[in-house]
Each structure stands twice: as C-alpha cells, then as structure tokens.
Amino acid sequence: MKRKLLSIILVCAMMISVLGGCKSKKEDDPVTTDPSNDKATTAPADKEDDGDDSSAATDDKPEYSEITVEIFDRGTDGGKTDPTNNHYTNWIKEKALEELNIGITFVAVSRWEETDQLNNLMAAGTAPDVCLTYSGDLIANYRDLGGLTDLAPYIDSHLPDLKEFLGPDLALPGRDMIERNMIMETGEIFSIPARRMNVAQFNTFIRKDWLDKLGLPLPTTTQEFYDALVAFKTQDPGGVGKDKVVPFTMTTDVRWRAATLLNSFIDPNLSRKERWVNTVIDRNYLLPGYKEGVRFLNKMYNEGLVDNQFMLYNDDTDSDNLIKSGLVGAFIHNWDQAYRDTPGLLKDLLVNVPDAEIVTIDPFQNANGVTEKDIYDAAGVNFFVPASSENVEGALRYINWLSKFENRYYLQIGDEGVTHEMIDGVPKVIAAEGEKIMNSPQNIDYTIMINGLDIGDPDKYSQALAQSYTVDSQLIIDAYDNAMRNGRPAIIVPATLSAAGPYTQTLTDKGETLMAEAVTAAPEKFDEVWDAGIEDWLASGAAEIIAEREEKYIE
Amino acid sequence: MKQKSVGHKLGLYLKRTWTLYLMMALPLAFAIVFRYLPMTNISMAFKDYNMFKGVWDSPWSDPLYRWFEEAFTSKDFWNAFRNTLMLNSLDLLFGFPMPIILALLLNELVFRRYKKFTQTVLYLPHFLSWIIVSGIAKQLLAPRTGVVNVLLAEIGADPINFLTENFLYVITYIVLGVWKEMGWNTIIYLAAITGINPELYEAAEVDGASRLRKIWHITLPGIRSTIVVLLIMNLGRILGSEIDRPFAMMNSMVMKVADVISTYVYRVGIRGFQFSLTAAVGLFQSVICVIFLLTANAVAKKFGERGIW
C-alpha cells in the first residue's frame, strides 16, 4: 500500500512538474515582452515632452510604433561589440526615437548563414521589418512565393530622401535607381538596392620584392605575367624552398580567384545580348573564349605554377595562410583584398617577411589589346520589407531617415579622434578601440543604402578612399586605378526573371567541379573534360535559365 | 457471462496496475508530440510547399507524385543514391567485422592494464567530430603539404592524391570511418563477451581445447545474438546517411563518388529552396530503410535468431 501511495505521489509530481513547465513558459512570454510594453507606454510621454519643446514637429510625428531591423552578425575576432547593442545602435535608437518616434530593435542574422537564418525567420513570419541580403536570387524566391511587400506605393510619399540619394540609374537611362528592381509588367517594387560608391571589383596582386630580386619589371602582358610565375618557380626569389613556393594560389572558387586572367580571354566583340543571355548565375563559362582562358590555367597548373591543393580550399583560409607566410607569388581577388585589415594579408605577411611588397598589376589584355575587366554594378545590397511586416510605414520612414546625409555620415565615420581623424578636410580611418569600434568597415551593416564612404564631396572621393585603409595610401590609389582601368560595367537588363533558386546551388557546385576538373586535367584530355562538364552544367538547369534570358532580353 | 468475467478480469488487472500505465503516459505523450505529430509534415512531399503559407495551406502538387518523379528523373539523385549504397555497403563490409575481431583480440590479452589502455586509445577517435577528422586527413594527405606526401617526396616518389582521385577518395573515406568507429563498437562486443559463462571456458580447458577452438566454439557463439542485432540495425541504415562525414570529406574533384543522399538533400533541397523535393527524397530513403530493416529482421528470425523485436 505504501509503495502504491509512493508511486501515485511520484506520478503526480511528474505531472505537475511537466505541466508547471508549460505554464511557466506561458507566463514567461508576457514577462519578456513587458519591457517593450513599458517602452511603448513611456515613449509617448517622452514624445510629449519633446512636443512641448518643438511645437512644429508635434503634428508631423505619427504615433509611437516599433520596428525590427536585420543586422549582420559577422562574428569576427575579439574586441568587437554586440552588433545589436553597441554605441552605434544606441545612437540610432535614441535619434530615431527622438526624430521619428520609432522604437528600433536590431535582430542579428549571421553573415555566414544569412540565407538559412533568413529562410527560417521568413517561414516563421517573424522576419524583421527591414531585411537585407546580397542574394538577388533569394529575393526573387520570396517574391515569387508572395512573401514581400510591394514598396512602389510608398516611394514618393515615404522615401524622398532615399530616392534623391540613390539618384538616376546610370545603367538604365531615364530611370531612377530606386526603381531598379521594378517589375516592368506590374510596376511593383519588392526590393530596393543600395548605392555602391565604389564599383572596383577585381585586382591581380604580385610580390614586387620577388620581381625586383629577379630584375623583372611589373608584368604588363599575360606572357610577362606567365614568365614571372615561371621565374618564381624556378629561381625561388623568396628563398622559401623550390618545392614550397606557390607561384599562383587560388581556391575552389576558380572563376573568382582567376577572374582577371580568365575573363581577358572572352571574345571582346560579343554583343550585349550574347553576353547577358549566356552569363548564368554570374558565371562566364559559356562565353566564347572563356574556355581558352581555362586552358591557359590548365597549362599553368600542369607546369606546377598553380597551387596544386586549390581544390581542397573551400574558403580563403588556406590560400590566405600561404600568402601570409610568404610562399605565394601572385593571386587574384577583390580589388583591395591584400590591403584590408581583415584578413590582413599584407599586414601579416610583413610580420613574417618584413621587406615584402604586394602591389597590383593590370597585365591581362583581351584580343583587342585592352585590359578590360569587370566592374560592379552601382546597385549593391538589396533591402526589402517582408509581407508579414505590421509596420511597413515605420520601416520605410526609418530607412528614409537613415539615408539623410547627416545620419549615414556619422555612422560611416564615427567620432573624430576615435574612429577617424581629419586630414585636409577628409576623414582618415584610424583603428578604434573600445565601445566605439565598428563591427564592419564604415558600419556598412547599419548604413544599408550605401556601400562605400560618401563624404558629400565627389572631388575628394579618391582621397577619402585611400585614407580609409591603414596601409600606404599610394597602394590604394594604384589598386583603384588598376581595378577601374578599362572597366566594363555589368549589363543591366530591366527584365524580371524567375528565381533560379532551385538551380543556383547545383550550378554553383557543378561549376566548381567543372573548373577544378578542367584545370587539373591532363592537357590532352582538357577538351574532353571541359565539354563533358559544360554539357552537365547545361543539363543541370543552365539551359533553362538561358532560354528564359533569351526570351526576356530587352535591348 | 463469459464477457462479464473478461471485463471483470480486466478491471481487476487495471485496478492493480493503473499507476504503471499512468507512468507510461508521459513518455507516450512525448513520443506522440515530438515524434509522431511532426510526421504529418511528410505531406510536404506531396505538396507544392510555400514557406509563407505553411505546410497545411500549401496546395497539393499536380500530379501528387510530382516531386518523386522529379527526384527519380534526376541524374544527380541516382548518382547520390548509388554512392550512398556503395559507401555504406563498403562501410558494412569492412567496418562491421573490425570491432568483432578487435574485441576477440582484446579479450585474449592477459594484462588487464594493457588491455584497458589499448581499448581507450582505440575508442578515443570516436569522440572527434568529422570536421576535425577531415582536417586531420587534409594535414596528412594533402598533395603538397600533407605529411604522407611530404615523406613520399623525400624518397623521390610522386605525390598520391588521396583526397582528389575518385578511387583513392573512396578508400580514404572507408579507412577513416573504420579507424574512427571500430574502437567504440568494440565496447558492446566486449560487454557481451563478459556475459559468457566462464564455466564453459573451464570445461573447454579440461577437454584440451586450444585458444582458437575456444574462440570459435565459445566466444563467437556467445556473442552471436549481439552480432545479429547490430547487423540488423546496420542494415537498416544502409541507405541512411550521416551528413557530417561525407560533407566534411568531399571536395569538388570527387563529387561523382562523394555526393550521397544527405548531401544531395542539403544542397538541392535546403539550400536550393526545394523543400518538397527534399521531403520526397527523405521519405523515399526512410521507406527503403524500413524495408531493409524488416527484411533483415525476418531473415534473422528464420535462422533462429531473436531479431530486434
């Protein structure tokens, strides 16, 4: 009997603890939201106080409301601040509350799992009111599934400052940049791009100290570049060991890490249409001439000039480490990659090899003898408002407010003496410590409508750009000139394409396989490997995408 | 009259044991809420899933088997299917007997301390994640900087592309798997061996049986049921696939042999937005696994073993 009683008690205790668990969770919810409710009730009081001070604004100010804003969490090395709660978010929160009567909560989304996390938030209907992504494809997916708010009706009423800042769309004469993503058939606008102040994209980097030791000039042609790599390999100017020297490094992302070289082989006389239609998910594989570029890389590989482990590098880490340890002669990357503080290629190389020099060169001429290269489109990251948003107007008022020069400018350069100092009236970035450290260069993650520094004076732009790095300004000026010389802007066609989503990942992966297999193939097998890879690529969705682009092309 | 007595008996039985049933209720509720209710989402495989509408409000696909058709007509799917089957079969072939052999060897060791030490060293790799193991593999086997190839270069041999040539990749994949898991699985067999009645060994000793005879006639039969149960469970996983191992090991040179169903699902389904296709592939995979499991179990029972239920 006693045992029975005990078991009954036990069962009851279990039940209670479990149900209690549920209950306490339910009770938790109001508790967690309470602070925001508090804010909601106290905020209007603040506002009334403000109203007394500036009577003119009282009528304009709508009722207090709240929005959530996506912010990238880059999870970078120590010393950085919480992206949702730091000096700059507090500045934004306070100022937006005061001027717009909007309460802002930042929602962190990992920069590296952006797509997955955004998908979860979107599917759960809890995505922030202001979302951003670099993936136009992701936006197309959400758009096709009906997950985005049409912003077209709000452009003139809510976003005048943004419209003015983005300005006319140079790629589509007669249109405003703010309408870049407009669907021509319906006039709907589901996302708005940021403006890139700087459209430089690629550069070729080379170890100048090695060239000097060999008595070689900076390469000005593909042949000279090739000769320099051969000399690096056979003469080992860095004294690192002939079996260790890596004349040219890259990663599995070959089309990026050999971009200036490969793209220079593309037929320069292609028509606009041919080029646009056959460029699938930003890959140039199908453009006439590209194959010859890959064949050249194949030749380099088989002669031992290319890092023979590149196919094992899924990201930049391994190749970065090779560069930093002074084993690499040349590489291709973002126009300013070697000079950035993160990953700090030049900075760390100088620690290992104090007299090392990395400079940019512009050697790859196309069939017309011009060093033509891709530059970015002026439209950068895109922001959108999910259909689940309950405060579209608030979100847009915030964005418009943020596009005003005084607001974005402070966020970009921070406080004088802390994050920058003024030289000839142009801010120079200095490494900040403590709470005012910026998590991203020029707080790019907060200033979502601008990519690159805008100091309000176009004439001083290149000086400001050069001063925004911690390395010698001349290196930046040269890098910028090399990246922009004979730049060919992206072709923009105002057609609304259906999302390539189902194909994108497969095509990306198969593209990497195609490139890895083609580069490493025996020279006599190159054609066979390349053609088989291209056939597979076309069959994996590229053909469908091309057909749609063909059909929707507008001159 | 008879019915009443049955009811009466049941009542008596329940009166005696209702608390036990009550205690079972919670685990049962757990299983229903967290195991069975989510299964309703399998319907996704038959719908055109729209993330903004949710599983229930998404329209049924037309035809209903649309996503299965799409999967079964995809070359990549069959490639992943073949690789899954191939890699798992090889794993079974080489990975399954190893722990048994190892357990038998360890059991024969006389020095207990040495035995314990060996066992610990052998099962430690189990606790390394595949990400780490693949990192180690790269450090050891990379063509230029890998230790093995550096040594080969020292003696003037050409580097071996362990990680980037299809055939060598498969061997590396299997060997690493066996290396990582054999020690861990040994524990189960050693436990089973401990359960064998020592009198049997004594009797064999008296009869003058040699060491190998004892292993063959006492130890192995003693752990036979354990072996069968583990074999059945392994067969149930023949088409199932972990994702961390292939995902961490693969590279773009060996996709033709490295891509398995789990990585295919992750890539095409999760990253490519084709959730319905993914659900269809997952459902197909589960059904095949259940069929394998049931068949293996039935066969085991036919041969007089206990099976797993």
From TrEMBL, chain A:
Residues 1-20 form the signal peptide. It comes from the Bacteria. Pfam families: SBP_bac_1 (PF01547). InterPro entries: Bact_solute-bd_prot1, SBP. Keywords: Cell membrane, Lipoprotein, Membrane, Palmitate, Signal. The keyword DNA-binding does not apply. Residues 24-61 are annotated as: Disordered. The keyword Transport does not apply. This is Extracellular solute-binding protein.
From TrEMBL, chain B:
Residues 81-296 form the ABC transmembrane type-1 domain. It is found in: Cell membrane. GO terms for cellular component: plasma membrane. PROSITE patterns: ABC_TM1 (PS50928). The keyword Lyase does not apply. Keywords: Cell membrane, Membrane, Transmembrane, Transmembrane helix, Transport. One of its GO terms (biological process) is transmembrane transport. It is a multi-pass membrane protein. CDD domains: TM_PBP2. This is Sugar ABC transporter permease. Its main location: membrane. Belongs to the binding-protein-dependent transport system permease family. The chain crosses the membrane at residues 20-37, 92-110, 122-141, 215-235, 272-296. The keyword Cell membrane applies.
